[in-house]
Structures are given as structure tokens and as C-alpha cells.
């Protein structure tokens, strides 16, 4: 048995697996107008945030190419892989997962599984790490899928956006609601529900109260076991580091990492957004 893992560039991967020989990527295109944004040429995403702030319209994101995935599956078969595991961003924020299911029967010479992760960013990266680690220890494919489904069930993320006007640009909030929210200093806490859809969890007055509530939710959500935890930010590294330091001072003993959102997710959340993502250890 030889297992390949395929993911997309919305995932933030732990550094130790980024060049793993059994890991393969599909690209989610990000464009400003008709110009593609090339994240690999802007590692600090300085240009990305400058362009996003300067333009009236948000950059556009689209699904990974289904044809590219189809061709990759052919290549993987030719390279001697027998099993392929696809781990992509949530079906609640992209149609790619649903479309990808059609390829499973098209490649019946491979065992292909594409579970709906219902998440993205660092938690998706932790799932990729789980799959690669278990595959490297020759764990049976069905057991890898079982463990991943256990992770998916208890993986989530909670998000505080910095500016409600950004949600208006993306068509997710009316101008009137944004004006009222900004006047009242409302900071909505969003989350991935159990269908992988982003919804409002709570509405909190002021950023200070929202971040305090975010940390309280994190402790509540992780008091029943061991988790990998990421504090994720959109060009707000200092704020993220302060939250991590606050957790350390409060003797929070779960492994916690500070990581950035990539361009795909930052497009939809806006600069200044901050979140935590949790994935249970299995």
C-alpha cells in the first residue's frame, strides 16, 4: 500500500511536512481583477494587504481545478500509489468538495477517499499531518480514515473580524448593519458550525471584550482532552503573540502555535482578523 495525501493552499501546514514526498497540492486561485496574486512571491503578504486595502472590490477566489485533480490522480497511479486521500477546505465555504466526489468512481484503479474536513487553515494542516504520520507507520487506510473522522467531528475555529466594512465588500453584511455595528463597536465572533459553515456565534461590544471571550471559548472547547491549537491572524501577528502569552501566563498547558492566514482565507475575513483553531490529537 502506498498512500498519497492531496490538499489545497488554504491549509497552513506544519513546517515538518511541507516537503513530504507523499504530499501534493492543488491551487486555489486568488486574483485582483484579472491579475493573479502569487503568494509564493510575497511570503509576508505585504503586497496582498496593500492591494486589498487600496481597492474597492475584494480579490476573487475560485475553486481548485477539477481537471488538475483528475490529472494528478492519473499521475499518482503511474507513480505507484494505490491509495489517495484528499483533504480540502470545508464544503461550507467552497463547492470543490462536492465536485471532487465525481472523480472517485472515475479512478477505480485507485482507492480514493475525500472526507469533508469542514474546516481550513491550520486545523486542516493538522489533519494532513495526522494522515501523513499514520501512513508513514503503515497504518491501514480504513483506520486512517476513522481517525480523521474523529478529528473532523471535534475540529472547529472561532474568529473575530477587525472591520465590519470588509464583510460588506464581500456581500456578507448590509451597509446599514455595518454602520450600526461600527458605531456600537460590535465585534461579532464567528465560528465553523458542525456543517463547516461560518456563522455568527456571539456579538460582543469592543475588541477587548471579544478577545477575552475568544480565550474563554478556547478554554471551554479544549477542557475535555488534548488538542493542537493554532492562534491564526490576518496581518495581526503582535495581537496573536499577546494572546498566546496570555494563555501561557494563565497556565494553559495545551500546545499552541501562532500562524498566519493565507491569502485565500484572508480575502474573506479581512486584515486584522484573529482566530483560534482546534484539532483533537488522535
| Rg calc | 19 Å
Give the SSE order as H and E letters.
EEEEHEHEHHEHHEHHEEHEHEHE
Return residue spans where pLDDT drops below 50 for at least 5 consecutive residues: 176-180
Mean pLDDT rating: 90
Going across the major beta sheet, what is the strand order?
10-9-8-13-11-12
Q: Strand portion, in percent?
A: 15-25%
Number of helices: 11
**In total, how many beta strands?**
13
Give the % helix.
25-40%
Describe the model.
This protein is an alpha/beta fold and 282 residues long. A hairpin with a 5-residue loop joins strand 9 (186-192) and strand 10 (198-205). It has a 6-stranded mixed β-sheet, sandwiched between helices. The chain has a 4-stranded parallel β-sheet with strand order 2-1-6-7, sandwiched between helices. The protein has a 3-stranded antiparallel β-sheet with strand order 4-3-5, covered by helices on one side. 39% of the residues lie in helices and 23% in strands. The chain has helices at 46-54, 66-78, 96-100, 102-106, 121-136, 141-153, 164-169, 175-183, 207-221, 237-249, 263-269, and strands at 3-8, 23-26, 30-32, 35-36, 60-61, 83-87, 111-113, 156-160, 186-192, 198-205, 227-233, 256-260, 274-280. It is globular, with a radius of gyration of 19 Å.
From the structure above, extract its key features.
alpha/beta, six-stranded mixed beta sheet, 39% helix, four-stranded parallel beta sheet, 282 residues
Amino acid at each position: 500500500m502506498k498512500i498519497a495525501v492531496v490538499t489545497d493552499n488554504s491549509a497552513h501546514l506544519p513546517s515538518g511536512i511541507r516537503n513530504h514526498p507523499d504530499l501534493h497540492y492543488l491551487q486555489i486561485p486568488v486574483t485582483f481583477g484579472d491579475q493573479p496574486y502569487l503568494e509564493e512571491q510575497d511570503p509576508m503578504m505585504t503586497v496582498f494587504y496593500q492591494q486589498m486595502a487600496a481597492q474597492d472590490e475584494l480579490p476573487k477566489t475560485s475553486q481548485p481545478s477539477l481537471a488538475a485533480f483528475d490529472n494528478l490522480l492519473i499521475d499518482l497511479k503511474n507513480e505507484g500509489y494505490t491509495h489517495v486521500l484528499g483533504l480540502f477546505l470545508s464544503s461550507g465555504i467552497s463547492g470543490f468538495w462536492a465536485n471532487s466526489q465525481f472523480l472517485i468512481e472515475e479512478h477505480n484503479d485507485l482507492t480514493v477517499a475525500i472526507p469533508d474536513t469542514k474546516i481550513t487553515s491550520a486545523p486542516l494542516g493538522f489533519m494532513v499531518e495526522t494522515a501523513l504520520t499514520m501512513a508513514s507507520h503503515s497504518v491501514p487506510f480504513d483506520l486512517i480514515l476513522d481517525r480523521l473522522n474523529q478529528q473532523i467531528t471535534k475540529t472547529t475555529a472561532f474568529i473575530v473580524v477587525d472591520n465590519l466594512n470588509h464583510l460588506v465588500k464581500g456581500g456578507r453584511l448590509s451597509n446599514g448593519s455595518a454602520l450600526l455595528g461600527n458605531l456600537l463597536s460590535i465585534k461579532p465572533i464567528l465560528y465553523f458550525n458542525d456543517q463547516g459553515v461560518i456563522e455568527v456565534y456571539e456579538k460582543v461590544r469592543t475588541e477587548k471584550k471579544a478577545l477575552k471571550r475568544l480565550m474563554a471559548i478556547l478554554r471551554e472547547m479544549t477542557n475535555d482532552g488534548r488538542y493542537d491549537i493554532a492562534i491564526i491572524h490576518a496581518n495581526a501577528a503582535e495581537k496573536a503573540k499577546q494572546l498566546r502569552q496570555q494563555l501561557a501566563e494563565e497556565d494553559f498547558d495545551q500546545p499552541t502555535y501562532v500562524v498566519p492566514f493565507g491569502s485565500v482565507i484572508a480575502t474573506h475575513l479581512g486584515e486584522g482578523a484573529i482566530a483560534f483553531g482546534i484539532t483533537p490529537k488522535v
